[in-house]
Amino acid sequence: MNVPSFRPLRARLLISGLFLALAAPAMGQAVSVLKGHDSKQPVDVDADRIEVQDRQDRAVFSGNVKVRQGNLAIDAARLRVAYRNASGQGLEILRIDADGGVQVRSPSESARGDYGIYDLNSRIITLIGSVSLNRGDTQVRGQRLVMDLNTGRSTLDGGNVASPDGGRVSGRFVVPQRSGD
């Protein structure tokens, strides 16, 4: 059985544009530190257990999974990595599925959800279920966050009316105090 090396794993793991475009004005036009994130940096994965399913080109990491690449961090209870052997270039990650309290963080922002999907081919990251997006004291909540890394556009949906929040997006935006107020 051919067991791929995952530590450090060179992969295309680009996660930028973590914040909603609509939230930027309320946040003082701050730019995510993940903008321009170098996806060619080594990817370090730590977990309590790994199961390599080589015939399916998949690896399953479980137990306190931590992924690090530069100043980007992803934590989850379980992570499934779909990959392929790129001829002469090692492994190429195609898709990452995470579940169990998925958290995506940079030094200035964080997002949480029950499940996470990162499709590297389409360059779309999706967090699903009890999603919260935070930057400083500003927070928005919903049921599904889709981040399109091609356009930089992010969309947060409230889900259906049967969801705990009634199918609505909610948030609190902290407005900076201006001189003379």
Automatic annotation (TrEMBL):
Organic solvent tolerance-like N-terminal domain boundaries: 45-152
One GO CC term, this protein: cell outer membrane
Domain of life: Bacteria
Entry annotated with the keyword Signal: yes
Keywords: Signal
Recorded GO MF terms: glycolipid transfer activity
Signal sequence, start to end: 1-28
A Gene Ontology biological process term: lipopolysaccharide transport
Classification via PANTHER family: LIPOPOLYSACCHARIDE EXPORT SYSTEM PROTEIN LPTA
Name the UniProt record assigns to this protein: OstA family protein
Source organism per UniProt: Tardibacter chloracetimidivorans
Lineage, top ranks: Bacteria, Pseudomonadati, Pseudomonadota, Alphaproteobacteria, Sphingomonadales
